[in-house]
Amino acid sequence: MPIIKLEQIGFHYNAHWVLKNVSCDIRKGEFLGIIGPNGSGKTTLLKVIDGILKPQEGDVWIDGISGNKISRNNLAKTIAVVAQDSQMIFPFCVHEIVLMGRAPHLNRWRFEGEADFRIARQAMEMTDTLELANRSLSALSGGERQRVLIARALAQQPQILLLDEPTAFLDIKHQVDFFDLVKSLNKNSALTVIAVTHDINLASLYCDRIILMKDGRIHCLGSPEEVIVEMNIKEVYETKVAVDQSPVTGRPRITLLGSHLSREETS
Amino acid sequence: MLKYLFILLILFLPVVILSGKRGKSDQVVTLARVIRVSFFLLAVVFLIALASLFFGSSQIDAFSVLQWLTSGVNETHAGLNSTNETILFSIRLPRIIFAGIVGGALAAAGVVFQGLLRNPLADPYILGISSGAAVGALSALLLGIGFSLGVSGSAFLGALFTIVLVYSIARTKTELHSTTLLLAGVIVNAFFSAAIMFLIATASDKSLHNAMFWLMGDLSLAQWPENALAGFFLIFGFMIIYTYARHLNLIAISEETALQLGVPVERTKVILLLAASLITGVAVSVSGIIGFVGLIVPHMMRMLLGSDHRLLLPSSVLFGSAFLMVADTFARTIIAPAELPVGVITALCGAPYFIYLLRRKA
Questions:
Q1: Considering the entire predicted model, what is its pTM?
Q2: Labelling B180: which of B56, B126, B129, B349 has CA 20 to 30 A away?
Q3: What's phi and psi for B176, nearest 5 deg?
Q4: How far is Cα A39 from Cα A18, in angstroms, rounded to an integer?
Q5: Which residues contact B190 (CB under 8 A, 6 or more apart)?
Q6: Which residue of B has its CA nearest to A101?
Q7: Residue in chain B nearest A87 by alpha carbon
Q8: In a 3-state reduction of DSSP, which class is residue B249?
Q9: What are B128-137's pLDDT values in tens digits?
Q10: Residue B78: exposed, middle, or buried by beta-carbon count in 10 A (0-12, 13-18, 19+)?
């Protein structure tokens, strides 16, 4: 049984359809990438999976249960989200932030107990953030902050981790560190990962399968080799790229072609 | 003069002690820590209440006060005449307790509004909520609803209406900008202050309190019935708010984060807004508009104790009590035999503090 089943999802804001007839099965333990141009519905799809947006058409099935029948709280025990880094107004420290991941497991008036502290500690160990525990989140670097958010997500003990362009503001070292960490969690803890990203090469490198979206529809879904081909990229992004196989990683690799260069080539 | 220094010392003692402990060990909030800090601040509140009894425009020597305190209320008091006993029990004590209740209420409301709006500069006064509550209370009086519960209820509706109004002015489709929110509050505040002046000017009803009462806040009308009313609603509202304290932590980070972590955000927001408006409305209906308590106190406590609302809420309520008790002690004695409205004192401290926060943020 797929861990997530999307059944003819349609979602619209006012009269504008953002998702149209989206159907797919997401396997337990896979690393799925979602790529596509701006406004193609990637983030909306992620929010529909997480139940934050309710689709007007179709249904989301999480582990065989209809999304409508799962409470917010139970959803938060199954699905964790790490999004782009956003500004935090109040000075919470790292340990407090990670403990917040225990929220879905606690009653409204309960304080965290020994078990919660232990789980938060493990999450910080796994993400290498333990020595940051007493620092204020706003005092950390971008890469450190994203690791803390992963730790919070792990403290939720989810089966599914959703990533919404989590490395948008990171340099390449921290991008790779971040995805390495997620990949190891994916492999070692059988965590299902769904990552929205703009970086096609990153998606190619880490994902088992990739969804390429265009205008709210799934343009194609398959392995990186199947999806990342010149034809698909050109159709969806309406720009010329060259795709070859990286001699180092063996994964498909895209090269952007500026129009000034291609003109020289043709002349 | 020495007396004033002494009471200020008691007020700032917890600030010094709590700041010394900060950062030394794990800052995570536990139930034990909440209880420890609360009892400590409660002791400070008692000390300040006690010290405030010694202040007043009629001279009662310290020895008599102590004698009255130690003898118990129902006994006969040798050495203390009945006038002095009346002053202590029927004038000073209810007013001191009243200042404590109102201060705690305003601080609690400040914490909730700051957390919900994710804006450390939010405060019932700056957002215009207090003015809205005052208009509500005045309208009730003008309509002839004389009983205090009716006036408080009307003030509550005024507060609730104002926060919804300010929020919808400031909110664009997707975002809630900090500066827009404050500007909306300023404008609404200006409008309602004008409305208050208008209502007072046109009213012939002598039962209306004087203009000063509503515009600058005044605790001189404190009597035991007002205390009972305000105290009841403060405790009631606080208990509701406190059960949502951990949810408020998550909403203070972002509403989307809260949703992702399983918080029913809309319901929580509505309940917290209702409770904070109730507390503000009741406080305003009995004491007029006292500004900046809900700004200064939560901010100081956040610097000392961190942002976790499970600790921030009780500590702000207690320190707010202590703060307003001291402010009112100054207000009623510093130009004796005349009195200042307590809002003058809080504004004189609060406005510069607000500017400091604004500049520091930029």
A1: 0.90
A2: B349
A3: -125, 100
A4: 8
A5: none
A6: B261
A7: B253
A8: helix
A9: 999 999 999 8
A10: exposed
